[in-house]
Write a structure and sequence with these properties.
Length: 313
């Protein structure tokens, strides 16, 4: 369990984390969601005692990081997969970490096996792909068999197979009853990975709820229509003051209207429909609505919108 209360971090004039309170419970993956610069990494560093809060505090299983007797046995983290010494083999890196934390060498082989690196354990980490480095970072986090795990943007730059592996792996760790807290600005990815969310924007808490509740709370839903007579239907909808959000070739996406209403209008005017589907608001829609005034770098959301197409809908 991770509990942050009034957590605040100021860098000079910059308030990176602003009075943040949230709880991350064991048993499911909790996504830490927010655009670039929202304060996610700073918060994770404070959880791990790498940065001191300006105010407030954060506890892991009731204790501040510095109060933990065997930190690696309580909390494991993947912050930056590339910090491993490039000339060390994966095995040597893990053995060194294990030795300096009083962890038995047997555990090194166990975690190498667990993350699928056993076959490359004697290769130098400097030659690893990003995906392999992420796996080594995860193996390092797992060394002490900790109950609490933190992953900062673990899927950044990975190919679909790597993303899928990490997603399943994190869900497996949560299913074992661990507390899994994972940050991302990739909203579609979070909708597939996390059951619970802590959402931040400009250092402030925007929401803490289940992923499903977050999507529902934004209440944005739309209707997708496919018709070979899109221009005619579009004209009719304009007469009825129905908002067309997007129109491309034979597809229209409509806001604030039911499928029944569109079906009736189409039938009245003998317009052929190939598809009429109610679309539940995506995580992206919810995020855009709830964070619209909390975005530090709008380009991050541009990317999120691109990711949304075809993934979360
Ligand atoms: N050491 C520092 N000194 C000054 N400002 C900092 C420092 N670390 C972070 N910041 C600022 O604090 C804010 C939050 O940064 P942080 O890296 O925590 O955000 P983030 O949500 O993790 O975003 P990203 O995904 O881009 O890393 C940003 O405006 C950042 O520029």
């Amino acid at each position: 369990m991770i509990e942050a209360r009034g957590l605040t971090k100021r860098y000079g004039q910059k308030l990176a984390v602003d009075d943040l309170s949230f709880t991350v419970k064991p048993g499911h993956v909790t996504g830490f969601l927010g655009p670039n610069g929202a304060g996610k990494s700073t918060t994770m560093r404070m959880v791990l005692g790498l940065d001191n809060p300006t105010a407030g505090d954060v506890r892991i299983n009731g204790k501040r990081y510095h109060e933990l007797k065997n930190p690696l046995r309580t909390v494991g983290a993947l912050l930056d997969a590339k910090w491993v010494h490039p000339n060390r083999t994966a095995r040597a890196h893990l053995r060194w970490m294990a030795r300096s934390n009083g962890i038995g060498m047997k555990r090194v082989d166990e975690v190498l096996e667990q993350v699928g690196l056993a076959d490359v354990a004697r290769r130098k980490a400097g030659g690893f792909s990003l995906g392999m480095s992420q796996r080594l970072g995860i193996a390092t986090a797992l060394l002490g068999d900790p109950e609490v795990l933190l992953f900062d943007e673990p899927v950044n730059g990975l190919d679909p197979e790597g993303i899928h592996w990490i997603r399943r792996f994190m869900q497996g760790l949560a299913a074992e009853g661990r507390t899994v807290f994972v940050s991302s600005h990739l909203l579609s990815e979070m909708s597939l990975t996390a059951e619970e969310l802590v959402v931040v924007g400009r250092g402030k808490l925007i929401a803490q709820c289940s992923t499903a509740e977050f999507v529902d709370s934004a209440g944005s839903s739309s209707v997708l229509v496919r018709t070979p007579e899109a221009p005619q239907l579009k004209r009719l909808l304009a007469d009825e003051q129905i908002t067309v959000r997007t129109a491309a070739d034979d597809r229209l996406v409509l806001d604030g209207v039911t499928t029944e209403r569109i079906g009736e209008i189409a039938a009245q005017h003998r317009i052929v429909l190939h598809e009429l589907t109610a679309q539940r608001g995506s995580l992206e829609d919810a995020f855009m609505q709830l964070t619209s005034d909390a975005v530090e770098y709008p380009t991050a959301l541009g990317e999120a919108e691109l990711t949304a197409q075809g993934v979360a809908r």
